[in-house]
Amino acid sequence: MKIAIVHDELVRRGGAEQATLRLHEAFPTAPIYTSCYNPQNTYDEFKKCDIRPSWFSKFVKDEKWLKRLFYPFSIWAMRSINLREYDVVLISTTNCAKYVNTNPENLFIAFCHYPFRLAWFPESYSEVVNSNGLKNRLYKFVINRLKKIDYNAAQNIDWFITNTPEISEKIKVCYNPRNEISVIKSSIPCSNFFVSDTPRLDYYLVISRIEYYKKVDLVVDAFLKMPDKKVIIVGTGSKKRELQAKATSNIEFREGLSKNEIADLYANCKAFIFPQEEDYGLTPLEANASGRPVIAYGKGGVTQTMIPYNGNNAKKCTAYFFYRQTSDCLIDGIKKMDMIDFDHTFIREHAETFDQDVFVNNIRKFVLEKYDLKENKE
């Protein structure tokens, strides 16, 4: 069985990129094709892989230029990648990996983290929401084009996999796939994280891309109202400069940290804050792997991965949920979380049920079963 792995792009760090590394662990001899690759801006583990970027990689080295040139160049770049020689094409995607050049003889499997957000959920982007006049008409034209391109490409996919039943429903609505969608929960490498015997607990932590839909602004606004509490925000994105401009001394921004530095921040934080509604979300699990509880907006993927406090399960919970995305609700959640006596051993043990070995084995089993099914039909 000759297999190729495809990822949208490798110029940033996030849950989708981590999932691609797990796909590669399932099939370690498979090359990874992508639109663009910059080893300095993504996970170091990719340096050990056979990465095969398209011509687009000559022009795009970071997320800023990726967004500027995505339409139409990223689409053309992915279409230029010819994978017809492979028996199996396994993609990790939210947007353009599904545009690669395949044929009906390929077994085409997509681990879809979310339908292409700009095409199907453009209200997630402040640039779209706040546009008007000619700019708004241009956005509508591009979005309509992307939706058609994305839908047509999705019809070539034999099998979809995703993280949660909620995302599965969105994939059904957007792409109308021909086969049943399978849910395989994403994982984390628990060995990368540790539980501190003497955590400092003198700050809260956010690790996120700093974009409109990530709701990091809620965190900044909350800590502007709580000058006696400190938060460290790790990440980059189009909204970072705006949020930095209004931040006070108790709100610290960092980026470009090593794996060990990230692990240390997790292990010593008071709690991890997750203010957005996310398709899945690996960072809350990483915090749990460090024995630390999570303060999360109680919708989306966290409802599948966290055990929320319900008033009497302090020793058997991993998170405190708040249910309105306002700074005041987040502040209330932080204050209530501070009064809960969490069991940090239980929190770590919970995270271990999402360890990468479980995910890798499930992915390998799924692909081999579908390949055997296709071979037997032929």
How are the secondary structure elements laid out?
Blueprint: E1 3-7, H1 15-26, E2 32-34, E3 51-53, H2 63-79, E4 88-93, E5 107-112, H3 117-120, H4 126-129, H5 133-154, E6 159-162, H6 165-175, E7 182-183, E8 204-207, H7 216-224, E9 231-234, H8 240-246, E10 251-254, H9 259-268, E11 272-274, H10 283-289, E12 294-297, H11 302-305, E13 319-322, H12 327-337, H13 344-352, H14 356-377
Parallel strand pairs: 1-2, 1-4, 2-3, 4-5, 5-6, 6-7, 8-9, 9-10, 11-12, 12-13
Characterize the structure shown:
This protein is an alpha/beta fold and 378 residues long. The protein folds into two domains: 3-187 and 356-377, Glycogen Phosphorylase B (Rossmann fold), CATH 3.40.50; 190-352, Glycogen Phosphorylase B (Rossmann fold), CATH 3.40.50.2000. The protein contains 14 helices and 13 strands. It has helices spanning 15-26, 63-79, 117-120, 126-129, 133-154, 165-175, 216-224, 240-246, 259-268, 283-289, 302-305, 327-337, 344-352, 356-377; strands spanning 3-7, 32-34, 51-53, 88-93, 107-112, 159-162, 182-183, 204-207, 231-234, 251-254, 272-274, 294-297, 319-322. The protein has a seven-stranded parallel sheet, sandwiched between helices. A three-stranded parallel sheet has the order 8-9-10, with helices on one face. α1 crosses α14 (356-377). The longest helix is centred in the middle third of the chain and has 22 residues, at 133-154. The model has no long low-confidence stretch (mean pLDDT 95).
